[in-house]
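DOMAIN: structural biology
WANTED: fold as tokens
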Amino acid sequence: MSQPIVDLEHVFVARGASVILNDVSLRIERGEHVVILGPNGCGKSTLLKTLTCELYPLSLSEDSAERLLGTRTPPKTRVEIMGRQRWDLIELKRRMGVVSAELPGKPTLTTSGYDAILTGFFSASTLWPNLTVTEEMRAKAEDILKLVGAEKLRDKHVGEMSAGQTRRVMIGRAIAGNRGVGESSDPKMLLLDEPTNALDLAAQQDLRELMQQLAEQGTAILLITHHIADILPEMHRIVMMRDGRIIEDGAKDALLNESQLSELFGRRIFMSERDGFFNAW
């Protein structure tokens, strides 16, 4: 069997004096489309930063294990991404494209849409003079602009783009980074953190259609969200988080219902469904 993309066991992560992730275990196979769902502050974004090695797990002492778990025997903690426990972060970014709600590392405002895609090959904020852009990179950037429906944004500056246009280009940039050059044309995984934040209704619909297209083409997607409407019909696994823990992990058909959502968010939730998409209020 091939190595899973994500394999976590007994992971604890602290930010400051607070433990944000509390005994999290998670395995995601290659090609899966998975949703991490939970309320604000439940640890979703901390989990994402753990997967991208921006945050590292705690090494528990006997005293901390007793405080957190009620036992003086610390569990064996493991974080493996694509079969490896240690990564060069630039190489990892090229394997696992990340689009955050805050769009960290966004290219400079005067960078064009086309050049923004090119920066993804280098995980850079701009095309610095020491970076060599090959003809293969240029050809792939043109293909990616078409893939994400951003041909009209080719020569537009990022600073002049709407939030929806910027998010579309940033997805293209992430795809460029983890496709690389001289490798398979298929990205390894795309991680989307609250992708429809700050988008109007039309831009949300456009972005979901793009995500659906990428999923249908075989792009593995890990979606981190509290918006039920972001969950694509192609996503069949739901991981529910609350208070830093995974409380449910299973099939969408079993978990995406009013009863489970009401328990997850702590109040009465109503749902509707149309064409495989859900809405909740």
User: Anything to note?
Assistant: The two ends are 41 Å apart (CA to CA).
